[in-house]
Protein: Dabb family protein
Organism: Larkinella bovis
Amino acid sequence: MKDQSRRKFVKSSLGASLGLGLSAPAAKELFVHHVYFYLKNPDSAADKAKLIEGLNKLAKVPTIKFVHIGEPAATTRSVIERSYAVSWLCFFNNLMEEEIYQTHPIHLKFVEDYSALWEKVVVYDSTGPKR
């Protein structure tokens, strides 16, 4: 299999598995928003459950193409950060759709209703490399 066709295959497989229907040009536009929440009460199962409840509501913002709510995995390599409580990973078709998400009433309500639960939030936004 030629290298170029393998790249196309991997991109299309990734897009299909995420339900994004990505073609090669759309992959360049893909905007990834990854948020790590650090709770004020990190040992509180109730606070974690409440935050996850809020994130499930937040997932209804229509510009989000794919979302994953996660918790630290049971991995132990030295490079792994495990001090967060919950992670929020979502994909958008482009920066403009992520900006719509940021000002969407569901997002604003999420911050209003759930921000008292966390002491810190760390956000990693990324886009594909320019080619």
Observations:
- Residues 30-127 form a domain with the Alpha-Beta Plaits fold (CATH 3.30.70.100).
- The chain is about 40% helix and 25% strand.
